[in-house]
Amino acid sequence: MEKFWKFLEESMANMTEFLTKVRSTSYIRNLQLSLVLITLTMVTYFLSHQYIGQEEFDLSPDGPFAIGSASPETIISNREIVYPDQKKTQIEKAKAYNSGAFIFDRDYSMLQNTVYSYIDEELENLKSVGSDPGYKTIANLLVKNPRWKNRSQEDLKFLIKYPRKQKLKELIKQCTSLIFSSNCILKEAPPNLTSIQAYGGKVYNKGGNDKYSILDGSHIFPRENIYKNHSTMKMLTRLIEEKFPKTEPNLIPVVKRLSLSYVYSIPACHYNESETEQEKLKEQEKVKPVSSKIEKNEKIIKKGELITPEIRRRLEHLNTYSSRTNISSILSVLIVQVIFVWIIAVFLKKYDSHKLNDLASNIILFSMIWLLIIFGYILSRFYFHPDSTMDDIYYFAIFCPIGMVCLLTGFIFDEELGIGLGLYLSIFIFLISLNNITSFVMAFSTTVVAAIYGFRIRKRLDFLKSGILISFVQMIVATSGYLLDSREYWISETTGSFFGDLFASNLFKVYLACFLNGFISATVAQILLPIYEYLFNIPTRFKLQELADTGHPLLQALLTKAPSTYTHTFMVSAMSERAAQNLGLDWLLVRTGVYFHDIGKIPNAGFFVENQHLIPKPENINKDNPGQAAKIVIDHVIDGIAMAKKARLPREIINFIPEHHGTSTMAFFYHTALANLSPNQRKKIKKEDFQYPGPKPQRKETAIVMIADSAEAASRSLEVITPESLDELIQKIINIKLAENQLDESGLTLGDLTIIKQSFKEILLSSLHQRPKYPNSEDTKKLESETKNPQKPPGKNENDSKDKEKQVKKSQNSKKKAVK
Fold first, then answer.
1. How many CB atoms lie within 10 A of CB 426?
2. First to last CA, the chain
3. Which of 736, 750, 669, 751 is nearest to 706 (CA)?
4. Are 611 and 642 in contact (CB under 8 A)?
5. Which helix H or strand E contains 300, and what residues bound it?
6. DSSP of 689-750, one letter per residue?
C-alpha cells in the first residue's frame, strides 16, 4: 500500500510538472489557436443545430400522419422554412382577376348629336305653344313633343309658365351632360352586375375629352334603376343639387326629371365583355407566386390533435426541406463568433502572459468555457421544448452558470480575463436564447459582478457573499425585463391570501430562480476550486495560505536542520512583503515564495555561513577548493527545485528558488579561484562555473526577493545601523544588480526601486536597532539590601574610594553606550 501511495505521489508530481511547465510563446499560441478552433466549432454547431435538416415524417396514406388521424407526437419546426404556397397563390390570382377593371364603352356623340338636338327642338316647341298653362296648351305641346307624354301635369304647367325658356334649355343640357358624364347608364343589366358594382369599372369615352374614366360601382347601373332603385335616384338628385346650388328650388326637380328622361331614352353606355376578360387576365398574370413561412420553433401540431389537410401540407413541406441544411445561416453564426473572438483577443492583447503560458492555465480556462457551452446547449433543448412553459416565466440566462464560471476565472486569474471571457459567453447565451436581449443583459451584468468580486475574494465566506450579490443583480435585471416585455408578473386570479398570491406569482418564481442561481454558482465554485487547485496546482490565495503555514514539512525541516537560514528566510519575507504591498503586487505570493526560496540548503546546511556556528564540522568550514564550494552553492538551487517539485509546490512558488539568484556571479569564490592560480593557469577558470544557473527574475515579485535576500545578508555586516547607512547599503546592492543586468526582465522601474529601497529600510531599522544593556539582577538585589540596612563606614578607606571611582566610570560608560 505504501508503494502505491508513493507511486501515486510521484505520478501526480510528474503530471503537475508537465502541466505547469513554462512553454515557448509559439507553443502556447498554437495551443490557444487549437483550443479556440475547437470552441468555435462547438459553439457554431450548437447554435446552428436549428439550421440542420429535420427528421422526415412518414406521410404515406396509411401512415401515422394520415388526414383525420391523431398526431402521434408534438411536431415543432427546428428552423424557418419559406415555401411556395399554391393554394394562397390561387386565392391571390382570383382576387387579382376579380379586381381587374370591367370595361365599358360610352359614346359622347349620342349626347351631342342626338340628345342635344332633341332638347333644342322640343324647347322651341315649348316656346311656340305660349305661356298659358291651360288644357289646350298642354295637349298641343304633347302633340309636338311626344317624348314628354310621361311628364306630370305639374311639370308641364311649370315648363309652360317658366318665362326664361333659353335659360331652361341651357340648364337641361347641363344637367343631362352631368348625368351622362358622371355615370355609365346601361341599356340592360349585365350578368355580373354585382361584381361590377363591387369593384367599379373603366369607361372608355368615344368622342369625349378624356380617353377613359374610372367610375365607382355605384355609378354603373342599368337604366331601369333610375326609377326603380331609390338609392340611384337619391344619388342623382344629390349630384344635381351639388352642381347647381344657386338655381331656383322649384326648377331643379323639374329639370332633373326631364334630363333623366332624355338619358333614359338613349342609353349610350355598353359593357365590353371581351376587353374586360383581357383586362382581368392581364391583372391575374401580374400576381407572383405567394410564399408561406413556417417560423422557427413554430408548433405545427400537438400530440393527439387531428391532422387536417392544411397541417398535412405543412408536414409535406417540412419533409421537403428536411434534408436541406441552411449553409448561409451556419456561416453567419460562424462569422459572428469569429468577430467577437477577435474583439476579445484585441481586448486581452496586453494581458499578463505569465498567467497563460502553460498547459494547466489554458486547460482551466477553456474547460470552463466548454462547461458552460455544453450546459447552455442542453438547457436550450429543455427550455424551448414544445411542451415547456419555462420561456413564459423565466429568462434563459437565469439557469446558466455564467456567474460560477466568471467567479472562478476572476479568482484564479483576474477580473480583466473574467470580464473578457464573460462577454464572449454572454453573446453565446444571447444567440442560443433566440436573441433575447434581457438574457444578454442579465448574463453580462452577472459576468462583471462575478469577475470583479471573484478577484477580491479573501475568505471562503466571500463566496457566499458573491452568490448573494449575483442573485441581487439578476433580480434587478429580471424585473426590468418584465417591465420592458410587459409580462404578467402577478397572478390574474387571486387565491384569497396575499402570501398565496405572492408565492404563485411569476415574479416570485423568477426571484427564487435568481436566488438559487447565485447560491448554486457560489457553492459549485467552492466545490470545483479545490479540484482545480489539486489537479493543476494553481496558486490561489487559499492554496498560498495553506503553503505559508509554518507547519509545512519543508519549513519544519528548514527550521530543524538550518535554523539560521530559517531566521534569514522570515526576515527576507518581511522585507519583500512590505515592498510588494507598497507596489500593489501579490504580497501573499511573495511571502509564500520567500518561505521556500532557500529550502535547497537543507541537505548541506552546515556549509552555508549563517549555519556554520551551529554545525562547526571541518568539512563544512573548509573552503580551500573554491570550485567545489561554488558547485555546492549552485547545487542548493538545483536541490531546492527538485525538493519543491517533489512536494508539488506551484510553479509560481518554485520560480522564486532560481530567480532570486538569477545568473549572478559568486564573486568571493570566483576571486579566490583566480587568486590561487598563476596568470597562465587562470585561463582554465570558467566564469560560468561560478554563476547561478538562472533564469533572471521574470516578475517583479522575484526581483524584489533577489534584492531583499542580498540586502538582509549584507545588513548583518554593518557596524553602525542608521537610516543613512542602510540607504547606502541597499542602493549599493541595487546598483550591483543593475550593473549585472539581473533586473532587465523583471519589469521593475526606477520608481519601483525607490519604493523597494524605502520599504526595506523601514523593516531593517525596526529589526536591527541597538538596545540598552540591562543590569544584572544580583546587582539590583544588592542595591535593594543596602537601601534597607544603611551602614556608615568608620572612615575613608583609600581602596574604597578607588573602587567607587571605578564604579562611577563604569556606570557612565554604560550610559554612553545606551545612548549610542
1. 26
2. 64
3. 736
4. no
5. strand 299-301
6. GGB-------SHHHHHHHHHHHHHHHHTT-SS--HHHHHHHHHHHHHHHHHTTTTTTT---H
Cα distances from 394 to residues 50, 434, 487, in angstroms, run 22, 14, 11
C-alpha cell at 739: 550593473
3-state secondary structure (DSSP) of residue 791: coil
pLDDT tens track for 215-264: 888 888 888 887 776 776 777 777 777 777 767 777 778 888 888 888 88
Q: Cell 483550443: give the residue.
A: 35
- For 248, residues 6+ apart whose C-beta sits below 8 A from its C-beta are none
Question: What nine digits make up the cell of 527?
Answer: 466545490
Provide the grid cell at 402: 455564467
What global pTM score does this model have?
0.64
Query: Omega into 695 within 30° of 0, i.e. cis?
Result: yes
How many other C-beta atoms can be found within 10 angstroms of the C-beta atom of residue 148? 18
Task: Decide: residue 378, CB within 10 A, 0-12 exposed, 13-18 middle, 19+ buried.
Answer: exposed
Tell me if 276 sits within 8 A of 103, measured CB to CB: yes
Cell numbers of 478, please?
Answer: 429580471
Note whether 699 and 734 are within 8 A (CB).
Answer: no
Three cell numbers written together for 785 = 539590601
Q: Which of 422, 420, 416, 411 is nearest to 456 (CA)?
A: 411
3-state secondary structure of 464: helix
pLDDT tens readout for residues 639-697: 999 999 989 999 999 999 999 999 998 888 888 888 887 777 787 888 888 899 989 99
Where are the CATH 1.10.3210 domain residues in the chain?
Answer: 542-768
Q: In the structure, how many helices (H) and strands (E) does the chain have?
A: 37, 10
255 vs 568, more confident: 568
Give the three cell numbers for residue 287. Answer: 400576381
Largest CA distance in the chain: 195
> Is the separation of the CB atoms in 104 and 269 below 8 Å?
yes
Question: Domain 542-768, CATH 3.10.450 — does that match?
Answer: no
pLDDT digits over 299-322, tens only? 888 888 888 888 888 887 777 766
Burial class (CB in 10 A: 0-12, 13-18, 19+), 624: exposed
Query: Which three cell numbers, joined as nine digits, stand for 244?
Result: 347647381
Buried b (16+ CB within 10 A) or exposed e, 219-242: bbbbbebbeeeeebeeebeebbee
Residue 271 CB neighbour total at 10 angstroms? 23
- Residue 748 CB partners (closer than 8 Å, separation 6+): 700, 703, 704, 756
CA distance 813 to 794: 30
